[in-house]
Hints:
Blueprint: H1 6-18, E1 20-22, E2 28-30, H2 46-58, E3 63-65, H3 74-83, E4 91-96, H4 106-117, E5 124-127, H5 135-147, E6 154-157, H6 161-169, E7 179-182, H7 194-200, E8 205-208, H8 216-222, H9 225-233, H10 238-246, E9 252-254, H11 261-268, H12 277-286
Parallel strand pairs: 3-4, 4-5, 5-6, 6-7, 7-8, 8-9
Antiparallel strand pairs: 1-2
Helix pairs in contact: 2-3, 2-11
The structure holds NADPH dihydro-nicotinamide-adenine-dinucleotide phosphate.
Amino acid sequence: MIKLDSKITQELYSINQEHRVLLADGASVPKLGQGTWYMGENPGKQKDEIEALRLGIDLGMTLIDTAEMYADGGAECVAGEAIKNMRDKVFLVSKVYPHNAGLRNIAKNCENSLKRLQTDHLDLYLLHWRGSIPLEETIEGMENLIKTGKILRWGVSNFDTRDMKELVSLPKGSHCAVNQVLYHLGSRGIEYDLINWQKQNSIPIMAYCPIAQAGTLRRGLIQHPDLKKVADKHHATPIQILLAWCMRHDNMIAIPKASNTAHVLENARVNTFTLDQEDLQKLDQIFPAPSKKVPLDIV
Ligand code: NDP
């Protein structure tokens, strides 16, 4: 566990709380949050995961994203322990499976998430991806949860532009607060139309896999010499450049997941520098923006 000077902790907390994204209902959330996928899978790692999330909250990354799917509810349990006694500081997001997002199950499943998270409400509840239940029914279920105070707002995940257009054309569909989609330097498909469409419709994007997850996908990115040059220029790391790059849009929230406190601290420092035009051009040359519509990338 990293021990940090309280002055540094406070400085990073303030910086990260200042960088915010405005939601259509007037609330605002920090641009830099924390993911929880793969947390709660292994009881032996739980202590570290809780410590990592708590450190992130102390450093101003107070938006926490989880889902009933992750570790079959185990990630929600970890998040619940992490935010205990700090619930009022946190903007809490969870997701419902598509097959549970109909009127028969959504209230029960939301209640189960609330129990695991040890809270009485979610700040945001997302449909994890589009399934076979009609969108109208999910919207009604979500709106009922708002009426009963179980959630404050709802949104979707893994919706491409066509799905978003259909969603907002439905009654109360425009109440959708965010769309959570995959976005990182190596996967820029949403730049073709989704980012701008959501901007025009005041629906922020929550970027998942902002640091391209572990494994082969990341290897090509992280080791690129030009990415390293940009990182060196800012006395930063390639991971921090990936995060800063993702968060350069004013309607973009990023939710990197880190279960290691050193990683949390590295991620928390991303708002201490800004990429300039020269950096962005260099990164565009290595990983160009899409010139045509490509299907939405999904993990
Ligand atoms: P990320 O891009 O956030 O990458 C997570 C991986 O990066 C972990 O292995 C983590 O390791 C590692 N890592 C984190 N910080 C650093 C660092 N500074 N240096 C080196 N390695 C680092 O991928 P995720 O798939 O986790 O996406 C983020 C979140 O988005 C998820 O956790 C989840 O909440 C959400 N999500 C949503 C999806 C959806 O369909 N809506 C799909 C996928 C994700 P370690 O844990 O060891 O620190």
